[in-house]
Amino acid sequence: MQIVDRLRADIASGALPPGARLPSRPEMMKQFGVSDGTAARVARTLISEGLAIAKDGSGTYVRERPELTRLVRTWYSQLQAGSPFMNSMLAQGRTGSWDYNSRTVQAPPEIRARLGLAAPGDDQPDVMCTDYLFKADGIPVMLSTSWEPLSMTRGTAIVVPEEGPHGGRGVVERLLAIGVRIDGFVETVGGRAGTAEECARLRQSPGAMMLTIARSYPAGDRVVEVADIVLPADTFQLVYSGPVGES
Fold it and tell me: How far is residue 106's CA from residue 115's CA, in Å, rounded to a whole number?
């Protein structure tokens, strides 16, 4: 850890700038008088912290500082026509796109509680679950899983979020098409280490820190959509704004 602390400080100060090659294992063994196993653990630790990357047959290098992406979380952006994510990327000169997979499932207990669904009477599907992989200029940047009650959308043109005449239009605009007016949104932001699957899908180092957003969309006395969003902490800035009410 003393070697890790020294290299970490050199990276932070710029003595080892982005793209610089870190000492090889033989070099660390000679310079610090440690074993090969210790030298290997130094490299693994810096990689797990997101400070370095390993290149096959070449060595370990200081990770390039990623370009920060702003993710604007404002009610007014939800009211714009089209996808809020695509509009946000376009405002930054980037192209937003996404892959998705929608399926009908029976909501798990935690999602049932967030949506205010009654206890299931059988094993029939009662929500549309959609997994998303969002991309900026073709690079994966964000994961999201959304749940919408089938009691609200079954038999309508918007039952599959990304298909039909309103596909890809964003939750607020889509639900308005069937007469459901969303009042606002509630988001709870947190942070944790990414799972192995999340890090792989977002092309992050194992254990990279992630921002998490648990979102709910209320409409009147019911919640009409909930989503769990995951994005790399070192590449995104969350920007929140909203109106100030009169006293």
Answer: 12
The count of residues in the chain is 247
Query: In this structure, what DSSP letter does residue 68 have?
Result: P
Which pLDDT tens digit goes with each residue over 222-235?
999 999 999 998 88
Q: Are the C-beta atoms of residues 199 and 218 closer than 8 Å to each other?
A: no
The answer to whether residues 72 and 32 touch, using CB atoms and an 8 Å cutoff, is no
Three-state secondary structure string covering 24-44: CHHHHHHHHCCCHHHHHHHHH
Q: Residue 194 corresponds to which tokens in the numbers above?
A: 């990414």
Residues 6+ apart with CB under 8 A from 161: 100, 102, 128, 130, 146, 148, 167, 168, 171, 174
Query: Mean pLDDT, the chain, as a whole number?
Result: 88
Entry pTM: 0.74
CA distance 107 to 220: 21
Encode burial over 81-110: b for 16+ CB neighbours within 10 A, e otherwise. eebbbbbbbeeeebebebebebeeeebeee
